[in-house]
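Follow-up to my post from last week.
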Amino acid sequence: MFRHHWNVLSILTAAVFVSAALTFACADDDDVSPTGPTEPEEHEDDDDHHGPGEEELITTLAITLTPSGGGPSYTVRFRDLDGEGGNAPVVDRIELDAGTDYDCMAQVLNETESPPEDITEEVKEEAEAHQFFYQTLGGFSPATVTYADKESDYGTNSGADHPVGLAFTLSVPENAQNGQFRVILSHFDEAPKDGVNQSDETDIDVIFGVFVRP
Amino acid sequence: MSVTRILCVILAIAVSSLVFPAVVHAATVSGKVLNEAGEPLPAVTVVLPDLEIGAFSDEEGRFRLENVPVGRHAIEFRFVGYRTIRSEVIVSESEPKVLEVSMQPEALIGEEVTVTGERDLTGELTGSSQSVLVLPLSELEERRGQTVGETLESLPGVSTLTTGPAVSKPVLRGVHSARVLVLNAGITQEGQQWGGDHAPEIDPFSPARIEVLKGAAGVQYGAGAIGGVIRIEPPELPTRPGMGGRINTNLFSNNRQGAGSLLLQGALRRLGGLKWRVQGSLRRAGDAHAPVHVIRNSGFDERDYSMALGYTSDRVDTEAYFSHFGTWIGIFKGAHIGNTTDLRRTIERGDPTIVGSFTYEIDNPRQRVDHDLLSVRSLIRFEGKGNLELRYGQQYNRREEWDSHARSGGVARPGFSQGLQTHSGDAIFQHRNFGNWYGKVGVSGMRQENRRFSTGFLIPDFLAYSAGVFALESWTKGKTTVETGLRYDYRWMEIYSNTGRRATEIVDGGIFTYRNMTGVLGLIYELTPDMAVAANIGRAWRPPGVNELYSHGVHHGTAQFEIGDKELDTESSLNTDLTLRYQGDRGRGELGFFRSHYSNYISLLPADDLVLTIRGAFPKFTYVQSDALIQGFDGYLEYELTPYIDTHLSTSFVRGRNTAESQPLYQMPSTRFIAGLSLHLPTGGRLLDAGIGFEGRFVMRQSNFPEGIDYADPPAGYNLFDLDLHAEIAVADQPVRVQFGVRNLFNQRYRDYLSRFRYFIDNPGRNVTFGLSIPFGQPMEE
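User reply:
Got it. Predicted complex:
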């Protein structure tokens, strides 16, 4: 009697385990592969430099300044090569001459890739969803920024042709002194870009120290 | 419409129902009681408890109850050594009711007795030395279509941590996530529980019974049962031959949600003892509506199914249960901010900038969650000695999250994705009464593996093993029960190292071991036949979570740079509680006081430092340990004012304090009261049950909060009112249930302190609900 019931039980249990094994088999094979945690999965996505789906990383903001009246251009950078946390970012100082206008270009990079990924291209592609904002602070506040581009400069965009701010002019008057220069890149997802207000999704927010040569 | 006007309407209905009571028609209920082998069972007590009508079965197992009023009644079959059957019977005038009942020897699967002896916990006076709330099938039916978190929300001492309408986590007496254990079909649910926006992966249509045990229960359940245990049980498989089932449909106006479930079950006539069930459900919702705004991208699309197979023989019962949970969840777009300035600006403005119209579409950011659970439980009876219960569980949890807009590849592939596989086994021997002693001993083990797929990084991969052994005994004499137990647990975990170019993905792994001893001492004393007092002192513990050891990065919703600490030790609590219970003729109630002392309570606190990133500077928060104290009280009272009017009241009060820092704990639920009135309308003919319910929920502002942790102070208190109408109609001898309700009746704007979206947008507004539940075939056994 007892033996009989054990047999029924063991058959039933065996059936359940076999079906369970089958159910989980897919998960086992495809997902929990014993290849180790760090081995990258192969994906047939060639234009994808960084890890698939990984949140976009911006390591570097570079601003190239060229005196409007001619002269050598130079580039200042905010670089955080290991991304958030870890080593602190390295921030260059901006050095300028009072009474001079500068034509400036902003560039955004992911330098964890080699060669570095130029995210500026993506900003241009999605010009209607991005805008740089520039603030002159402290003794540098007499300096002013004028946008020198429009969305339409970067191809056909669905926006209302607001500025993007990849190109801008920085005017440093005679009375400008040492201070700070703040650069913000706003990302506009669903919130409308109106050319004036920042969004609630900031991609970049950095402050450079400014040294003004009288 | 004002509150007073609605109250007037309700009162008018109440008065009219008092003046015109239902005309009473009567009929006969008879039948036959059989044992597990199909033989007649004499001397079984058959009772209709609400009507105080009863009879015994004769030598041939037959019984007969005369003059039973027409309507729907609870019926019970009781016999020593057999499991009490609690069911419902629908009595109609047209034909006398004939029932055939087969009784099963006691201590079947799913009836594992919690903490104390051979008692049923269902609201019983002396059931447990801790506060246990039970939601039986009838109450779950009223809440169908909602998430499990929402289902439990109205219980005293329970609140929810929400991330929009689709994600709600139960909070028991102020604690949640890794401090609350969820048991599904006897198996500890293992998902990525550490995340505040990771809700329990449970099909809300699947449970037939939910038990909420408040307070530490480390001896019985092992690591994690610090703040309490939520036990979710699927329906018991039917014992009567034949087939039956139920269709549920629910509609919700606020997010235009449709939900439905189909259940089919049966027991085979030819292969006696073999029984089965299949169930599937769908829940689909679009954007929810706050009173003023559409909560953009807050829809969900959930598809779940489960199946069960059981076999009962003389000595062995076996039940196998498999369930799949799968959902897409949209995360409100406005909650995705870039840095601290963004967050401050959003809070100052108050309203979201992201506006749009309703859609069912789920866009990024979103989550995809899948959970498979297999549970196999066997109960082997050793006559005169006891029962051995064997449990095996296998789970696979896969969670994928998409960011708002990772530009390349990100839309197609998740920002992070990982799988957690868990195998667990338990063996518990429950011995028969030995003098006044009754109890059990058990061993359990678990293997767990977390694997990240090649996506962004959140928590490292790990492999963990744990094992535990426990004994739990209770001693009963007269009106006194004493219970005591001990448990030893061991956990081994290897965290795998990881390299990468980004600081956030570099992990210096290692091997971690934790061991812990826990104990419990409880007392229950029956003061009067309808009042009892229970006291309990218990310990529980948990190892630090992988996120607490290894977090390193910005938390998007809160603009904090969170840093884990590999040196964290186990957290443990010593929980003392005192519960007063009342179970009278006209009502029942419970009042519980609790005090939990935590050693090494893990919390995330500001480190008075900034982390400079390209998106600006973020305040640095680190996981630290300190002593903490969480205390408070909660309780409820249900009372029958007149045969047609019931009232219910409940309250929850919690205070948490970091005793080392001498400041309040973050995110403690605020004080709340619930008061409600239900009217039973006259029934008769086909109308089996009808009622109107009106409930007010009064939530205070949280005035106890730590300084300097949060960007915004706790939001104002709020009052919400709900209205509910329901009726049960006999259609082809089956009780068909129709429900119509309005939640947040006055479309009140409010933000709850435990809503993770409270910086960004209001909680949802008015919600009109409709529900239909149609049983068919063999009635379900409760």
